[in-house]
Design goal:
The longest helix is centred in the first third of the chain and has 14 residues. Helices cover 4% and strands 40% of the residues. The chain has 331 residues and is mainly β.
């Protein structure tokens, strides 16, 4: 059946541990990774001011967006960040921008109140080690500070709490502190890690999420459905099955999730009582909701990215949707 082939493609694309830049070594320079260059503070980018065109780090973008690996409102502003295989793309006030430098292959991207966490591989213009390990940026990508396992591991399946910055990740291969294919969490910014049992998770897990303020709540989406944990990831309960879970996102009182069973769905699940409401989606031809984000400053504004690279945004709580990008092409 056609929908089974689509599910297979989604699982394969989102769980592969190799990226397009795995075998490319970025040029090495004398500047230590993560060091702030001279003048950075004076020229710091002002996100959310509508003046990205005046930033020394961003420039207007009119190209094609390929391989989105994450989306979020980094830095608690009204600005959308898209993590791609060739750097950050930013959408502000109807205009698209891209980074002039550090055009890295960002994986495991999570926006936070302070900025974002990420993994992946360095771009050809970067002097960062390959792979990145886990990095954090508080200046919207101008500098990437090391968190853990720099030069050791590329984390694809990783989530970070928006306000509490609890990190939850699946380790794809053995490194200096983690066992292969085991789940770990850190509550102190990556200084220490604890292996968690993740009992109840089944199949291929494609994405995980951490509640923005409650460190006990985690969620996962995968080939066997959508899962919720209330004990920091030790055990998970499947809240929806017999379909593929494709996207996962926490707001303060809601778990948003995407699924596919031949028809793509986006569901609003109440954390208070478990009641659910299906969101109205635009027509998606052989496509699914792959990444979802809600504006922390305006809960009626939400954005999703599909498997085929189409991007929609709603300003009225998912009642209507505006097409921003169609299969990578800006509209």
């Amino acid at each position: 059946m056609k929908h089974l082939a689509i599910i297979g493609l989604i699982v394969m694309a989102t769980t592969l541990t190799a990226c397009g830049q795995d075998n490319e070594e970025a040029p090495k320079e004398e500047t230590p990774s993560g060091q702030i260059s001279e003048g950075t503070e004076q020229n710091a980018t002002k996100i959310g001011t509508g003046k990205l065109e005046q930033s020394r780090f961003f420039e207007e973008f009119n190209g094609k967006i390929d391989h989105v690996h994450g989306v979020g409102y980094a830095g608690n502003g009204n600005v959308l960040f898209f993590a791609t295989h060739d750097g950050l793309k930013v959408y502000e006030n109807g205009q698209w921008y891209k980074t002039k430098e550090e055009n890295n292959d960002y994986m495991g991207f999570s926006a936070t109140e302070d900025g974002f966490y990420t993994s992946g591989h360095p771009g050809m213009d970067s002097n960062l080690p390959n792979p990145l390990g886990i990095k954090k940026s508080s200046d919207f990508g101008e500098t990437l500070q090391p968190v853990a396992l720099e030069g050791e591991t590329d984390f694809h399946t990783m989530g970070v709490g928006y306000s509490n910055e609890v990190i939850f990740a699946l380790n794809p291969e053995r490194n200096s502190i983690m066992e292969t294919n085991q789940y770990y969490r850190s509550e102190d910014g990556g200084q220490s890690w604890k292996m968690v049992k993740a009992n109840g998770l089944e199949g291929e897990i494609m994405s995980v999420a951490v509640h923005p303020t409650n460190p006990n709540l985690l969620a996962a989406a995968g080939s066997e459905g959508i899962y919720l944990s209330q004990d920091k990831g030790e055990t998970f309960q499947r809240i929806i099955g017999e379909m593929t879970g494709t996207a996962i996102f926490f707001s303060e009182d809601t778990l948003w999730y995407g699924t596919y069973d031949g028809t793509p769905k986006l569901v609003k699940h109440s954390l208070a009582d478990g009641t659910e409401q299906k969101a109205l989606l635009p027509k998606l031809e052989e496509d699914v909701v792959l990444f979802f984000a809600q504006n922390p400053q305006n809960e009626n504004e939400m954005t999703f990215v599909t498997f085929n690279g189409t991007i929609y945004q709603s300003a009225d709580g998912a009642k209507t949707w505006k097409l921003l990008v169609e299969e990578g092409v800006l509209q």
